Amino acid sequence: MTADAAFVAYHRFGLGPRPDDMERAPADMRAALVAELAPAALRLAGDLPDSRAAYGTLRDDQMARAERRAEAAPAMAEGAAGMAMKNGPSAAHRLYRAELAARLDRVGRAQIGFVDRLVMFWANHFAVQASKGELVRGLAGAFEREAIRPHVLGRFSDMLLAATTHPAMLVSLDNVLSVGPASPAGRRRDRGLNENHARELLELHTVGGDGGYTQDDVVALAKILTGWSFVRDVEAEDAGRFVFEARAHEPGTQTVLGRRYAQEGRDQGEAVLRDLAGRPETARHIALKFARAFVADDPPAGLVERLAGRFTDTGGDLASLARALVEDEEAWTGRDKFKTPQLFIWSALRALDAEVEPQMVIGALQALGQPLWDPPSPEGFHDDRATWLAPDAITTRLEIAERLAGRAAIADEPADWAQAIFGATLSADTATAIARAESERQAFVLALMSPEFQRS
Amino acid sequence: MTDGTAHPPLFRPSRRLVLASLGGLAAWAQIPGHARAATPADPRFLLVILRGALDGLAAVPPIGDPDYGALRGAGALRADEVLPLDGFFALNGAMPRLHARYSAGEALFVHAAATAYRDRSHFDGQDVLESGMGGPRLSASGWLNRAVAALPVAERAAPGGLAVSPTVPLVMRGTAPVLTWTPPGYKPAGADTAARLLDLYRHSDPELADAFARGQEVDALAGGMEKGRGADLAANFRRVAEGAARLLAEDGGPRIAALSFDGWDTHANEGAEDGRLAKLLGALDQALDGIAGGLSPVWRQTVVVVVTEFGRTARINGTEGTDHGTATTALLFGGAVRGGRVLADWPGLATAALYQGRDLAPTTDLRAVLMGVLRDHLGLDARTLATRVFPDAIGVRPIDGLVA
């Protein structure tokens, strides 16, 4: 394959090339991508807290702040903002920043980064919203490590169960508040159902908005999910872990999408999730979203069909799905995708071999509208041109490119560097712009903002 | 010495530097005492790099040169558009504040100066300007850092050097400790980069071009329309300059700093009189004024050196701009400068006198200027300068009498 294929592989399926990557790119990029689909690529270095530890930290911090607030009550004129300033960032923000630092480290180390792209895709598919509250912000990284990452080469049904039972998701979609009206807890406390998680589970996570479900299905699923919560007692052995609270669970048989579920307790929900994962509507929904994320805003129908087929044939094996994508001729055609802000930043950092502080990246992603694990809705971030190719977005991207270019750790001449990064894909216009730049920094900026770097 | 003869491209370092005109000579003669004064106590030094290659013939036009008008054609500045310096040279009309400082004896221009670099790549040119070496990519450290490292520790003040940028530029890289600082809200993205990007998109990607052009319109509306550009630029320059000056003026602060202003690569529609270059020079004028203001308590101990990687073509090109050239102008500015004069071994602008038939010929090695300042202002001895700071400036000697 030509250098062009390497460029497409790195930008479309990976995290973008580092300065030496294109030169060393293997002849068969498809094989190289498939080779990354191995458990070794899933392992993470570092010792970030799991959700149990993170939960403990978050609760301790909340309690400590509550105490300080009580002590400072007479001097509250300063307001909450003043307090936060005085006491430094909350544990949630510290955890979030540490997670982002780990992400930056991972982005720098990944070879092509295909597995990491899969992690990002699936974490966005099962999106939690950090701004929902401190708990979600502080647990978002653990969510990705515990519920998403271990399953990106495994079965969709396992990922669905892991994501649905994770405290970050249960809090983000309010299921922890939902109580079966006829359950012991519901009868006693006059609390009821919250449909949020059930609706998104159908509309976003599995069969999709046109998956043929009705409001009755949503209510039935919401009832099935009642009692799915997590252990809040910080002293408990399994604090911050999933728990099935029988007292809040709506008793009785429920019907979802025409199928009756008579199981007791947690088994009922697990049975529905298994069935939803296996439905053809889910296969189509996932296949379309997958092809759209990597290949084109409006992906070839044949490609989507083949991906859905592979998903169904393998019982939702996600490694097979990823393989089917890169082995498909149509997945390598066109040049339609405009990079999302996150992909732009990850690939820019890799191309420039740049080291930056997590806070700078947090600010940049915020400015570009794609903060990590914090989409505007449970739907996750869109990945199409209509969303990102906005006038304001490009001027902001230019400003951020300037900042990143100031961090370039490149010893080569910009022209040589551009040749290494772009290979045969470097257009004459871009090469000229780089050669004529008035400073190295400007050359890097123009390269990062060039059409070939912005599109994949 | 407007002798009109062709000059070889290499420097003749031992050559005596003379002033370009009678006016200049008069100014020179008025400076009392030629003996080297002792270095001032607690000196301040600020290096300003103009990235992109300043057109020295537009910043300090040699209006007395008989070939100047013909070379520049419609782009030539007329006597009534400029501020007089010494009768032969003038200052671009966009720099009235600097002109006042010149009249007060606080600014010295060196003309027809160049580094050792003789090709036309910005990257390599800036590399040579900052490394202080004889060619590109010969050193991972910069001359200013090596100068800081060579200072007695007591004299360099606690924090070492200061780079007014998000990262340390080559000129400040090396073994001596360096701080970096940028003003809050600092926006590095210059209008020039945006214009180049829009041009690239227009050639290759209509969809991006359209989105970007509309984004710029919105920005312009938000930023106060037409006027915004120049005002923005000046405000940005000034913010950086004043911040740097304040830090240098601090009692316990750094004594040696470097900053850069971008955007000098004026290939098209240069606008030396009222266009882009005039705006840039106006912004620089304000920035220098801000530096003088911020450093006023220690102004008598201050030297600011303004340099660029190389000059621009002597002739105007086909797009009313100038392309990459060779020799250009440098500026020494500050209360410690023996100013009010233009220092040049003027090579002339006759075609035969131009370097490779196209550029102002280099007659002064910029390193000789820098060595003179480092020796007489910071007190570095000639041996240290020749071995550590500019190790391959063989035969280049410090110029005497640049600072009081």
Domain module count of chain A: 3
CATH architecture title of chain B: 3-Layer(aba) Sandwich
- Please work out how many helical segments of chain B DSSP would assign: 12
Number of domains of chain B: 1
Total helical segments of chain A: 24
N-to-C CA distance of chain A? 17 Å
Largest β sheet strand count, sense and barrel closure of chain A: 2 strands, antiparallel
Number of E strands of chain B: 11
Kindly name the structural category of chain A. mainly alpha
CATH class of chain B: Alpha Beta
Q: Compute the average pLDDT of chain A.
A: 92
Taking pLDDT < 50 over at least 5 consecutive residues as the criterion, the unreliable ranges of chain A are 80-85
SSE pattern of chain A:
HHHHHHHHHHHHEEEEHHHHHHHHHHHH
Number of strands of chain A: 4
The Rg value of chain B, from CA coordinates, equals 20 Å
Biggest pleated sheet of chain B: 9 strands, mixed
Q: What sequence of helices (H) and strands (E) makes up the elements of chain B?
A: HEHHEEHEHHEEHHHEHEEEEHH
